[in-house]
């Protein structure tokens, strides 16, 4: 099958390594044909710390997906995240080349090249250059200047950079497996492809991908990516806190966290005719978690789930969101994201996380689940797979135009008149939102 007929995503996370293979169907779009997620080894805070272990992890994950899809892969889009990620906005200016002053795709390419000409230390490299919008002479906020007339073309681009050594390590792992990297994609940006609506991006929104080792964030203002960053704290820290606080192993703590989180949606209700005391008794009993099976210790005392939530999990979740708050405040974008925050990644499934996020950030918050994608759905239709599905979506948008992930124009949809109406409606919405 030709490279352009299928796409592969490899998300090498701290907790799990996921490989997705999807075919590109003319009517349907992406159709997932192979899925394999296995526990990661050799990763710490989203970065490789043991090449051999990561090689065998990725190899096992790729093998599983290939077996399911019945097809061998040659190349893949690969996630990148971790504390080495950083972002900045840069401006470029060029003179329109054609004598009739009509702007061509070549002018657009030149102005983006001008914007990406930033001084960068030798150990860093550019992962993404994403143009925000364009200015033609004095007219600002232009999304697609091709065909317009002007003398001077300006563009502001959002640039995401990372450590070269980190990227080379990932590349080496894939090369050793005979896989070419189609493109590295920042995990926050990948997640944004599948969970954010155009309206949210226009209004102003932040996506927060809470993985095991890191929390990645991307902020969209006026429809454009404006700020990307990474915080070296993730859901694994909640597990570690439970292990310490309850004096159990990391594996047992993880199991306790998952059980509490999976049950957190169920609300115990009084049964008809049940006395208040009986209901209280039943509630108390249901709050106790028997950990003898989890720990393998027949003498282990049961634990109070609500105490674990209140004394251990909530303070750590609060800390994660206070760090997010700090970052957003530093960048002065808190007032520019009335659509609030959309939380993804496995960590998004932690008990009470969304309500804590709303309280800490004083913003609307929701969990981001992947938008519909055909193929094997039920296994991957949850926040833990948003990054890998996002890598496929990113690939689908990028590959037809060019095989490089570095250069990506924002998508332009709708006729100009529709865009104008939409913009006016959004402005109106913005003016009435707090
Ligand atoms: N149902 C669930 N309830 C609570 N927490 C969960 C659930 N499922 C996964 N998690 C947590 O999510 C984390 C893993 O998330 P994810 O798979 O997004 O991480 P990752 O991509 O491997 O890591 P990173 O992006 O930090 O490198 C783990 O800490 C895990 O405990
Ligand atoms: Mg991740």
Explained architecture:
This protein is α/β, with parallel strands linked by helices and 434 residues long. The protein has a domain at 87-161: Dna Ligase, domain 1 (2-Layer Sandwich). The chain has helices spanning 51-69, 105-115, 164-176, 187-195, 198-203, 235-246, 250-263, 276-287, 292-295, 305-330, 353-361, 386-398, 416-432; strands at 6-12, 16-25, 29-39, 43-44, 47-48, 75-80, 86-95, 124-136, 139-142, 152-163, 180-186, 205-210, 215-221, 224-231, 288-289, 303-304, 341-344, 365-367, 374-375. The strands form 5 sheets. It has a 6-stranded mixed sheet with strand order 11-6-1-2-3-19, sandwiched between helices. Helix 4 (187-195) packs across helix 12 (386-398). Magnesium ion is lined by residues 13, 187, 211, 345, 387.
- pLDDT < 50 stretches: 401-432
Give the mean pLDDT: 89
Content-based structural category:
alpha/beta
Percentage of helical residues?
A: 25-40%
CATH class of the domain at 87-161: Alpha Beta
Biggest beta sheet summary: 6 strands, mixed
Span of the ends, CA to CA: 52 Å
Lateral arrangement of strands in the main beta sheet:
11-6-1-2-3-19
What is the global morphology? globular
Give the names of the bound compounds.
adenosine-5'-triphosphate, magnesium ion
Q: In angstroms, what is the radius of gyration?
A: 24 Å
What's the number of extended β-strand segments? 19
The number of helical runs is 13
Percent of residues in β-strands: 25-35%
In the CATH hierarchy, the third-tier topology of the domain at 87-161 is known as Dna Ligase, domain 1
CATH architecture annotation name of the domain at 87-161: 2-Layer Sandwich
């Amino acid at each position: 099958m030709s490279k352009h007929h299928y796409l592969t995503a490899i998300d090498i996370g701290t907790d799990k390594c996921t490989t997705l293979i999807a075919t590109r169907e003319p009517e349907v779009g992406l159709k997932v044909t192979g899925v394999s997620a296995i526990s990661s080894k050799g990763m710490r805070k989203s970065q490789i710390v043991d090449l051999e272990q990561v090689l065998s992890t990725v190899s096992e994950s790729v093998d599983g997906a290939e077996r399911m899809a019945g097809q061998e892969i040659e190349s893949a889009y690969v996630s990148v995240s971790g504390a080495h990620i950083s972002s900045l906005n840069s401006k470029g200016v060029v003179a329109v080349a054609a004598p009739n002053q009509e702007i061509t795709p070549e002018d657009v390419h030149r102005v983006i090249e001008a914007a990406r000409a930033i001084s960068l230390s030798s150990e860093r490299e550019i992962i993404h250059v994403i143009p925000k919008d364009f200015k033609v002479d004095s007219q600002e906020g232009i999304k697609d200047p091709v065909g317009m007339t002007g003398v001077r073309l300006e563009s502001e681009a959002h640039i995401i950079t990372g450590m070269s050594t980190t990227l080379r390590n990932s590349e080496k792992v894939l090369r050793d497996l005979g896989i070419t990297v189609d493109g590295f994609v920042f995990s926050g940006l990948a997640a944004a492809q599948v969970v954010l609506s155009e309206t949210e991006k226009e209004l102003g929104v932040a996506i927060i991908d809470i993985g095991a080792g890191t929390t990645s964030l991307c902020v969209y203002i006026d429809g454009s990516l404006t700020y990307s960053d990474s915080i070296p704290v993730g859901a694994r820290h909640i597990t570690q806190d439970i292990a310490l606080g309850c004096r159990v192993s990391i594996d047992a703590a993880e199991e306790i966290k998952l059980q509490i989180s999976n049950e957190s949606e169920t609300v115990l209700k009084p049964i008809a005719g049940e006395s208040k005391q009986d209901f209280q008794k039943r509630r108390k009993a249901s709050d106790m978690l028997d950990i003898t099976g989890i720990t393998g210790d027949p003498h282990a005392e049961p634990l109070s789930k609500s105490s674990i939530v209140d004394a251990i999990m909530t303070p750590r979740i609060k800390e994660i969101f206070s760090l997010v708050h700090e970052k957003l405040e530093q960048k002065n974008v808190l007032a520019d994201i009335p659509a609030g925050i959309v939380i993804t990644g496995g960590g998004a499934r932690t008990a009470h996380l969304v309500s804590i996020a709303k309280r800490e950030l004083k913003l609307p918050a929701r969990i981001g689940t992947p938008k519909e994608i055909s193929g094997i759905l039920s296994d991957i239709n949850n926040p833990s797979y948003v990054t890998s599905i996002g890598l496929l979506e990113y690939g689908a948008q990028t590959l037809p135009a060019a095989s490089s992930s570095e250069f990506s124009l924002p998508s332009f949809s709708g006729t100009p008149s529709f865009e104008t109406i939409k913009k006016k409606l959004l402005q109106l919405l913005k003016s009435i939102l707090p």
